[in-house]
Design goal:
The structure is a single chain. This protein is about 45% helix and about 15% strand. By secondary structure, it is an alpha/beta fold. The radius of gyration is 24 Å and the shape is globular. Bound molecules: sulfopyruvate and magnesium ion. The site of magnesium ion has 6 residues, from helix 9. Magnesium ion binds next to helix 9.
């Protein structure tokens, strides 16, 4: 008997899935693959129930002969193990980014006579509603908050991109490319940068934009996205205020706050020693971390301590001593920052830190040392890479040039070729 294989990653079975099974039955013995958490999360199909529960759910569906785990989004493991005669999928994968997966699968199975069967995608109101409900669930605080810890545990390196508005949030949420090896690639998380949040409001990055306004930015983003959020908490403010910030961020569904060991008037780290900046003592910072951890109510939330010793030229030993102290005080991760072009000091820090601490997540922001790749950072024990300001820096010169050119030509025709078509911009935003 021939084998008809289909892969599910869903948490809810709807008539579209049942239709796929019905079609698969026409081709042979039906085997359903349960896409593992590890394979799903890199593609933003974050499950809301456990891998085990999904496996059991699929097993309970009538018409399925067996369920197996699929660990590779590109089906390599399944094809090698099962050699299915048919791979059945909704025809929604014939277009868009998923078509790369379809082509890959076709290349894998045609040499031995296997065939891809595209079943007409069930597109009706009830299926659309279930899909939307699932997406809505993922955007809820209790689901979103825990995603960062899960990503850290399942991926070699978590890639966060800055977002400072609903629109930039949508770009981080939706941008998917077909990577070098045919795999789809996208960002895992969003960084709400104090620099970019301030810049978007035309203000300097000196903790001038108050928390109420920063929370508003978070809400603009959470309303239209599902990916986890790392919040740039600057110095965290007074310890007496920071404890309230922790609770609010948890409630909003933020996964982590990063606070830096500075005090007084905070200026952006990329100024380094060109401006006056005061580092908090290790004891002061530890007290703030400990107070934040004590105030925290959920298990998922993370307080990450950011060390400014290299920025302020206090030396490697100072940075490492602080890292040890901050972890002891309860920090859930360490961010080490540098404004050197050469990643040498960052890598030295990471290597030394990893010799004595294998587990505490390490975070870096390679704005200056931007030649280093994600794979190299991961090899040195880095768990989260933050692209902290690139969207803002990309948008600003494009807007400025357009404004200048309209002034220059006294009309908009000359700039039109480089603008997003009106139709595209109005369809960028999903309507309810
Ligand atoms: C930010 O993006 O606001 C940061 C990172 O804190 S940096 O600008 O490099 O200090
Ligand atoms: Mg900042």
């Amino acid at each position: 008997m021939k084998t008809a294989y289909t892969c599910f990653s869903t948490d809810i079975i709807h008539e579209g899935h049942l239709n796929i099974i019905k079609e698969a039955q026409k081709y042979g013995r039906v085997v359903v693959g349960c896409l593992s958490d590890k394979a799903s999360i890199r593609y933003n199909r974050f499950p809301t129930i456990s891998e085990k529960a999904r496996f059991e759910l699929y097993k309970s569906i009538e018409g399925i002969d067996s369920v197996i785990m699929q660990n590779d989004m590109l089906y390599d493991d399944i094809v090698e193990y099962l050699h299915p005669d048919f791979i059945i999928h909704g025809d929604n994968w014939t277009t868009g980014t998923e078509s790369a997966i379809r082509s890959h699968v076709e290349k894998l199975i045609t040499p031995y006579g296997g065939e891809v069967i595209d079943v007409k995608y069930t597109d009706n109101e009830s299926v659309r509603k279930i899909d939307l409900q699932l997406k809505e669930k993922l955007s809820m605080p209790e689901y979103r908050r825990k995603r960062l810890r899960k990503l850290i545990s399942l991926t070699p390196i978590v890639k966060a991109m800055e977002a400072h508005s609903g629109l930039t949030g949508l770009i981080v949420e939706k941008t998917v490319i077909e990577g070098d090896n045919g795999r789809l690639d996208q960002f895992d998380a969003m960084w709400i940068s104090s620099l970019c949040d301030s810049t978007a409001k035309g203000k300097p990055d000196i903790e001038l934009v108050d928390m109420t306004s920063r929370y508003r930015t978070i809400e603009d983003i959470t309303e239209v996205t599902t990916k986890p959020i790392i919040f740039d908490g600057d110095t965290g403010g007074l310890t007496e205020h920071f404890v309230y910030t922790v609770r609010t961020l948890e409630r909003l569904g933020v996964s982590a706050v990063i606070i830096e060991d500075k005090k007084g008037l905070k200026k952006n780290s990329l100024f380094g020693t060109e401006v006056e900046q005061t580092q908090a003592t290790s004891e002061e910072m530890c007290a703030k971390i400990a107070a934040g951890k004590k105030a925290q109510l959920t298990d998922d939330f993370m307080i990450i301590a950011r060390i400014e010793s290299l920025i302020l030229e206090k030396g490697m030993d100072d940075a490492l001593n602080r890292a040890r102290a901050y972890v002891k005080a309860g920090a859930d991760g360490i961010m080490i920052h540098s404004r050197k072009k050469d990643p040498g000091e960052i890598l030295e820090f990471c290597d030394t830190f990893r010799l004595e601490d294998k587990d505490t997540p390490l975070v870096v922001v390679p704005s200056s040392f931007n030649t280093i790749t994600e794979a190299e950072l991961s090899e040195h024990g880095v768990n989260i890479v933050i692209y902290a300001n690139q969207l803002t820096r990309a948008a600003f010169p494009a807007m400025q040039q357009t404004a200048e050119d309209i002034l220059k030509y006294h009309r908009a025709k000359e700039v039109d070729d480089r603008l997003m078509p009106i139709k595209q911009i109005i369809t960028l935003i999903d309507e309810i």
